[in-house]
Write a structure and sequence with these properties.
Structural class: alpha+beta
Number of domains: 4
Number of helices: 28
Strand content: 15-25%
Largest sheet: 8 strands, mixed
Strand order of the largest sheet: 16-15-14-13-12-11-24-25
Number of strands: 25
Radius of gyration: 29 Å
Length: 819
């Protein structure tokens, strides 16, 4: 073992080999990850002391030229990663987030140009990215505040949007809210993504608006950022003059990043064909652009200095025009340094630079480890640097023309390096990405060059700039049609299961094995041959243990209460892997598609590729809207509804009344029973239209269905938005309402969950599906007090995220996403 390590990292000769840098990057990342996942916070003093001891031990072993010096060095970086996370995760006491749920008047400096969008109703919405400077609570003196925040405003109808430039002072009054995303496995952590950007809170001021005080003496940095913003506005205005709005939005996104205003069909086609990264000036975009230019320089046999200049120019232009925001700056540093070395013919230096830059970034910003942009940027760059050159030479040696070999090598390398991350977050793999990168991406790169040129020349010769922009619009039409055809190919995009951490590690170990030097491969082979019997015995033992453990597990039903914000959604997975949903969540204003962005990813995360049934308690959007996307994106056999009628459900889901999916709808009736894979679903209450009318309404909460899901002795009662009047009628009719787990009615509203009903249910657990800091004040204190008085433990999706119950029909346990 000692000889193997020595030959793999060659540390005895004092050489900083790539394999050793990979080891340091891995253990640094592991330290950050462990510090984030541990249920307790590690003391800084303990971590600091361990770091000093390991530093001394490393220095001694390095001085003695011991081949074991890598061990304390690796442990030192492990501790250093944990130490950096703990220190970076701590916020100052005067951070804006410390005033959560309080009404304040906040003053800060505008960091970027205001973002202006429109909602589904056409109302203008403004978002200001502000760095807090002071904060004042009612009746108190102002105090210093720090931290970034978003200020949201809706201007009054007829009033102009206030002018605001980077560096101006922004004042606003409102309630401070903490960032809160959908807390489910397989979901992007919105709170963490914002934290990496320095955003720790938000304030919604509504129609009250904000007060803008122009900065009279802007610094040079402010002036530069304002100039960049003006250039971007010039590009946007010039494009909108000569092309349709959707085209202008798409080309602007290709140039500077963003998704605002893009035709949804084009976005779907880009996603399906695996080239959606083109719409984001991220590290993968910068890396791909730099790689294409470096490869083009080699193809045209340009001098290396000229090629390096092209690479640096392209990255610099992109960085400036993308607003010099931190993610782009980090991506530019990563891509610029590594591809500059690559363009100069220093392939090994490029690899080392990438590893050093990665280590440096994580030391400076340890939270980056959890940011999808950093993960994709680093891995795509690594794939292009480590894999593409050798793969391109191999393809060329096997008869592929140099042009095709280079294009295929770039595409395969970038996709291969990022595949586990894409599968982890999106559960999909584009099989048409090779063709798209070969055929479409070169056209898009040409469009980017034309677009940049058109904006620059437009300053001098406006008609010429418009002509070039019009040509870009024509090329976009070609790109749209090509991606549509590629996306429609059979198997263009396939769903893949979420890979586990072990699978990801094994994948990159296998991928990395191809990159070992001949001497390192020989050392590994010699070691494996020498220990062949032991290794085979160990692998066999692990396989036997895994199979035995799987066979020993009892058949279980799992019930998942999904965090869909202010709404209801539950997934039931039967003992043999069938799935059905009870409500699907949704938003009332339709601004966010819960079905496609929460429900479907959740199903795919657990390997569910079809749904046996959807039970919808009633047609309100916060219960039924998400079903539209589930029906559109996944096979669904049956949809069971209340008595409100198909038209109400179609409206809630955004479906046409002629949509064939409505043929799957069946109205539930009280007393009906359904069985799916040994799990029974009893319809405890399904008010008819007449019964709903007698309760005070013809639909909505008064028409709410109630179902009980039972497996063995374990049962789950789903009450939707059932009212107290319905609860009383259910009990008066003598229906059995008992259940092991109660989904509390109407998100904890006081219009539900009467004491007699709670006593009749007598649950061991109560689950409240509710949105964080919702404007309704759910769950109401009265409801929480009633549950507490009956000694019923409460679990809440706004606090614990997704809640998953496991039961074999006798025993029951649960786990929560947020611990």
């Amino acid at each position: 073992m000692k000889q193997l390590f020595a030959r793999l990292i060659n540390f005895e000769e004092g050489q900083q080999q790539e394999s050793f840098l990979v080891l340091l990057l891995f253990v640094l990342s592991l330290g950050i990850f462990l510090a984030a996942e541990l249920p307790w916070q590690l003391p800084v003093t303990v971590l600091g002391g361990a770091f000093v001891l390991l530093l001394v031990a490393s220095a001694v072993l390095v001085f003695r030229r011991s081949c074991w010096a890598f061990l304390p060095l690796a442990l030192m970086f492990l501790v250093l990663g944990a130490l950096r996370f703990v220190t970076a995760d701590a916020l100052p006491t005067n951070d804006i987030s410390a005033f959560a749920r309080q009404d304040v008047h906040v003053t800060g400096r505008l960091v970027e140009e205001p973002r202006v969008t429109e909602d589904a109703t056409g109302q203008t919405k403004l978002r200001y990215h502000v760095e807090a400077e002071s904060i004042r609570q009612q009746g108190e003196a102002p105090q210093t505040a720090t931290g970034g925040l978003y200020i949201y405003s809706r201007p009054q109808e007829g009033k102009a949007v206030p002018d605001a430039s980077i560096g101006d002072t922004i004042e606003a009054s409102g309630k401070v809210r903490l960032p809160h995303g959908y807390q489910n496995p397989g979901q992007l952590d919105t709170k963490l993504l914002l934290r990496v950007q320095g955003i720790t809170a938000s304030v919604a001021v509504g129609k009250a608006g904000v007060r803008v005080t122009p900065e009279e003496h802007p610094t040079l940095t402010m002036q530069l950022m304002r100039r960049i913003a003006a250039i971007r506005e010039h590009y946007a205005a010039s494009m909108q003059e000569v092309m349709p709005e959707h085209d202008a939005a798409a080309i602007f996104a290709m140039l500077f990043g963003g998704y605002d205003g893009i035709d949804p069909a084009l976005l779907v086609s880009f996603t399906t064909t695996g080239i959606v990264h083109i719409l984001s000036v991220s590290g993968s975009h910068i890396s791909l652009l730099a790689a294409v230019l470096a490869w083009l320089g080699g193809l045209l046999r340009l001098p290396r200095l000229v090629t390096a200049g092209l690479v640096l120019f392209a990255i610099t232009v992109y960085t400036l025009l993308a607003g010099c925001v931190p993610p782009v700056l980090r991506a530019a540093a990563m891509g610029g340094l590594t591809f500059l070395a690559l363009a100069l013919g220093r392939e090994r230096d490029a690899r080392r630079l990438l590893l050093i830059v990665g280590i440096g970034m994580l030391l400076l910003w340890p939270l980056l480890l959890f940011h999808i942009s950093f993960q994709l940027s680093f891995l795509a760059t690594a794939g292009l640097i480590y894999l593409a050159p050798g793969l391109g030479r191999w393809l060329e040696a096997h008869g592929l023309p140099r042009f095709l070999a280079g294009s295929f090598a770039l595409s395969i390398s970038a996709q291969g390096a990022t595949l586990p991350v894409i599968a982890w977050y999106f559960n999909q793999l584009s099989l048409s990405c090779l063709l798209a990168n070969l055929i479409v991406v070169p056209i898009v790169e040409l469009m980017i060059v034309f677009g940049l040129f058109a904006g620059l020349v437009g300053w001098l010769i406006a008609p010429l700039g418009k002509i070039v922009f019009a040509l870009d619009s024509l090329l976009l039409g070609l790109v749209r049609e090509m991606t549509r055809i590629l996306a429609a190919l059979p198997g263009s995009m396939v769903w893949v299961p979420t890979p586990g951490p072990l699978a990801c590690v094994l994948y990159y170990l296998v991928l990395g094995a191809f990159l070992l030097a001949d001497e390192q491969k020989q050392a590994a082979l010699v070691f494996l041959k020498a220990h062949r019997r032991q290794e085979l015995a160990g692998v066999a033992a692990v396989l036997v243990f895994c199979v035995a453990a799987h066979l020993a597990q009892p058949d279980e039903m799992t019930v998942h209460f999904i965090d869909v914000g202010q709404g209801d959604a539950a997934l039931v997975i039967t003992p043999h892997g069938h799935a059905f949903l009870v409500d699907t969540g949704g938003t009332r204003d339709g601004a966010f598609d819960v079905g496609s962005r929460v429900d479907v990813p959740y199903l795919l995360h657990y390997g569910m590729y079809d749904v046996d049934a959807i039970f919808l308690s009633h047609a309100h959007e916060d219960h039924a809207a998400g079903a539209g996307a589930v029906l559109r994106l996944m096979p669904v056999q049956h949809v069971f509804t209340s008595s409100e009628g198909r038209e109400m459900y179609a409206k809630s889901m955004g479906l046409s009344t002629a949509d064939p999916a409505l043929g799957k709808f069946t109205t539930l009736e009280t007393g009906s029973r359904y069985e799916i894979d040994g799990v029974t679903i009893d319809v405890v209450s399904a008010p008819t239209a007449e019964e709903a009318q007698s309760q005070g309404g013809t639909g909505g909460n008064e028409a709410c269905d109630v179902v009980r899901v039972q497996y063995g002795k374990a049962s789950f009662l789903f009450t939707g938005d059932m009212t107290k009047e319905q609860e009383a009628k259910l009990l008066a009719d003598g229906r059995d309402a008992s259940a092991t787990v109660l989904k509390v009615g109407h998100h904890g509203s006081n219009t539900s969950s009467s004491e007699p009903f709670l006593r009749a249910v007598a649950p061991r657990y109560a689950v409240i599906s509710v949105g964080a800091d919702n404007t309704f004040g759910h769950p109401k204190p009265e409801v929480l007090n009633r549950l507490a008085s009956l000694n019923i433990p409460v679990l809440r999706t706004d606090q614990q995220g997704a809640i998953v119950f496991h039961t074999d029909g006798t025993k029951i346990s649960y786990e929560t996403y947020v611990r």
